[in-house]
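FAQ: What does a multi-protein file look like?

Like this. Sequence, then tokens, then the next protein.
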Amino acid sequence: MGLFSRFIDPHDGYSNSNVRVASTDYTFFSVETPNRANDAICSIGVIKTDAVGTLKYKRGFLVHPEEPFDRRNTEVNGVALGDVADEPPFDEIWRDELAEVFAGTVLVSFDARFNMLVLNKTLQRYGLRYPSDRFIDVQDLARDCLTRTDDLSLGAVCRQLGIEMPRRRSALGNALACEQVYRALVRKAHVEDHRGRHYYWKFHDLKGSRRTPACSQAMAELYGICLGIAFDVPINEGEIACIRDWMTRNAAHRRTPYFSECYDLIEKVLADGMLSLEEHEQLLDYTRPFVFDRSSAVETVDQRQLIGVLRGTISDGDISANEAAELASWLDERREFLSDPNIAHLYDVVAGVRRRGEIEPEENVLAMRLSELVISADRRDHVGKIIVGGRRFCLTGEFGAAPRHEVERAIIAAGGEVASVVTRGCSYVVMGDLGFDGQGAGVYGPKVRKAIELQQHGFPVQVIMESDLLRALGY
């Protein structure tokens, strides 16, 4: 297992698999990133203490990331290119000072899945050694120790514990809050643990061995959706429906680790039918670490993120000039996708809109269509061989390539059966490529929802697209 728990005396070391971790000094840290790639650092705050909390080091750094800044990141963390233009790059700060601070300590961070992975990727960029493969995630500690766990953001946990957060966001302020939260939770665990041990720590394996490839891929897509829907604010009903659509498509995993927690979070933030910027940030914070989890091939996870971004961008049925510009900037950083002709064509369209600052109606239609083609092509890659003879089909939605009655006749001629309702004996539910009349993009009808419900109960009904079926029929 990649996740395990221990109660530890603060004056003892901890050994596992003959590897001893010193418990005398702790390095609390928090990072800020310049863009969505999250593989560079523009600010880092570091606090080092001994076992009883005596301060040994405290400093915040502005860092030149040597990477471009995204507007959204600057809005969130307050760090812009002008702030770091004369600051040293991270490798200089690490070699001159931080490597010695981090060495031989237990690393502690709030939402450590994000902070540790960003640190790891940044060190890898400069060919620097990672200081430790063991760390404490204070957010997970809060999940175990607190009674109210519906909101586990740093600010919410501080409020629950009566800890004052700095008014102005900074990496050093977050590191300081993390250290205070950790001490408060340690005291809470000490008081409430009837076994009388002193510290409750959760260590995580950086390899993330608990996460399955399906989990990482789905979460990477949801992260992309969250990025895409925020390209143009405010977030509207169609974009919220896109998140619910993700939940529907992944319903078969509802009870599995990470999915269950993510579903609970989504249901909480969407309970009022709206998604505030703060709630949107919570979803990003939860899904972001999965983008860097390599239990799946890098290309597969990145592809899921791309599909999510496109789904989120077009989910309201329209692409604005601002959304086109943001999409172009996102693709600027991921040129490897441009080997796909449809994505390259889409990039040309949105990059042209970005240059002019306005979008023409025909460009809107073309960008929507190209995005849909990329999403549809991705989906076809995941559909196995379709057998028509002796199988029962149920058709739903609006068909584009051929009228529905002609498709039904073709199924029957090939030895298949057509049903009007979805039952346990149904083999395939076929969605028309044009979707559902009168409903927003990404919103499924009752037949598809019934098919997914049957899948959850172990019945092998498949949901396929009109184009998938027509290829199987030889059209």
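And here is the next protein:
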Amino acid sequence: MSPCRWSPQTRSGAPSCCSEARPRCPFGTARHKPRMSVVARTPDHVLAAEREQLLTMVDILESLPPEEVRALAQCSAFTRLEARDAVVVAPEEHKERLLLLLEGRARVYEGPAGRELTVSLVEGGTLVGATGFASCRLGGLRVEFLEPSIVCGVRRQAFEELVGRNPTLGSRVARLLGERLIETEGRLADLARKEVPERLASQILRLVESEALVTPEGYKIPNCYTHQQLATMIGANREAVTRAFGRLRLGGVELRNRRIFITDLETLRRTAQG
């Protein structure tokens, strides 16, 4: 097996998916900075049966016949990443390969350190961004993994052939990208017309819809988000987010052990409307 030039290294510097030593990544090795293309071209330690099972859990691949899932697993590249690994998908690769987050959680972002803007949060079981369907900016697509994750790279040509044999797959992709476009338009409208407290309230509502757990008191966001991370999601700075939380506490939002609790959803919705 030849060394995998595209697979990331773990934070300790050890290869994450191939047993052989790899050349040093061309993007550098700082673990908190984007540093490499994510797609691997050699097998990793994700077993064949596990690959097929993970693919069946991807939203756009639901109801795909087992033989198609098996064929897709055989022609795709799988890579494991550690929490806080950050990668760059180069523009040419963005256009030619779909990136599927099979397991874990990640954020897609733009901008230099200190001025980052989080474009989206991605949960396991879906497509990352619009990879495989369009070109991206010259700087590439930047992705930070928030917990240990497994990603899969699928060649666009192979996916198009799959859609040709399974037309409903194309409808699922169109629906997914349409929903993301609507959400992005809403966030842009928030940036243009709302102040930081209202933008923060809107972002918390999005987190409620995507990941909240129901509690006797209301809703709980199970994942921890720092004020800085929330700031990158709404185009603000950390200090402004801290002040905004002070205002939202009067409207049914509480912070406990770095987790967000919502005790009055209706008041939060009214705040988000501005």
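Q: Is there any per-entry metadata?
A: Some entries carry free-text notes. For the entry above: Residues 89 and 141 are 5 Å apart (CA to CA).
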